[in-house]
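During the no-cost extension, the postdoctoral fellow (Dr. R.K.) reprocessed legacy sequence entries with the updated structure-token encoder. One reprocessed record is reproduced below for audit purposes.
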Amino acid sequence: MAEFPKASVRDAPIDASPVLVRVDFNVPLDDGRVADDTRIRAALPTIELLLERGAALVLVSHLGRPEGRDPELSMAPVSARLGELIEAEVSQAPAVVGDEVEAMARELEPGGVLVLENSRYEPGETKNDAELAAELAKLGELYVNDAFGAAHRAHATTEGVAHLLPAYAGLLLEREVAELTRVRDEPRHPLVVILGGAKVSDKIAVIERFLETADEILIGGAMCFSFFRAEGIETGDSLVDEGGVEMAGRILQSARERDRRIRLPVDVVIADAFSADAQVSEVDAIEIPEGWMGLDVGPATAEAYTVAVNRAGTVFWNGPMGAFELEPFAAGTRAVAEAVAEAPGHTVVGGGDSAAAMVQFGLADRVDWLSTGGGASLELLEGRELPGVEALLDGAGVGR
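Re-encoded structure tokens follow.
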């Protein structure tokens, strides 16, 4: 696997001084409790490594998109869940920065954990404000970034503070970069890429990148209707990314010129409304009548995609095949999830809805890597630099 180019937390000089750790605890909440702790668990190896080496930890993360200090997006439920998962005393700070928070960080005993409030309570976070970064830098002697899911954003907690403290990659971020770089640059062929979701425009760059390397690109989700529209096929009332139709046409033309295979659904599950109680039918993809919308790939498509996955040397999946949150339209995504879980090749599932589907279907532990990053995964695969990674110290750790 490619050598990881940045300094790893494994090699950081850890002592009893506080370490500022950027984690990605942007988790769903339900009635004041963490509804899915996948991202918290993903950060535990780095947290536990640092605690074992005698560090005191100051953790910082964003949560949602609060308008000001929204109490419903406080980190308090996240702190409570973290305290249930680790054998350490976890305290909740009343703010992100300030005199009181600085005093709490100074008073941390080795092995103690302080969770700062939602970083987006501070307007300077998303603006990468230098003053906020300087205040954050007062809270630790070292900085560790383990928030791959936010590494594509140049924010105060991901990029700004990394220039003010010795900055290292956490174990999760290191593994994420290594796994996704392997898919992009060193895949074992055949490389089968499965892309779903709603918008072609969100994934145009990653599709173009994979046209250079993938043996097959399998398209599902609502984005397939932009491809159908580009081919002059009527899509009824299906959701269409109108801005992506021209892009889809260019992709298909480029694939033909390069003799690359892009596969579209051959049948779809349609409904007369976006509802679990809607009237449902299965039709050939070219036969979606007016008043009906496509909400999942059909069984013939699911079977064909399964066959392709089963013969792959490497599989990358990002984006559901349909509206899997509604049971009548979950079969296509479930079939692909099961195929990826059973695949003999190296399997990587991108973040976001596809990762949520693997968790929902109880298959998360049956793939080689389940990424915590949605947008960050795609930007890395596109070949773009991630500000939260580039700001770290250079090093020579081997990606694992």
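The chain has two domains: 3-173, 187-382. Residues 187-382 form a domain with the Rossmann fold fold (CATH 3.40.50.1260). The remaining legacy entries will be reprocessed before the final report is submitted.
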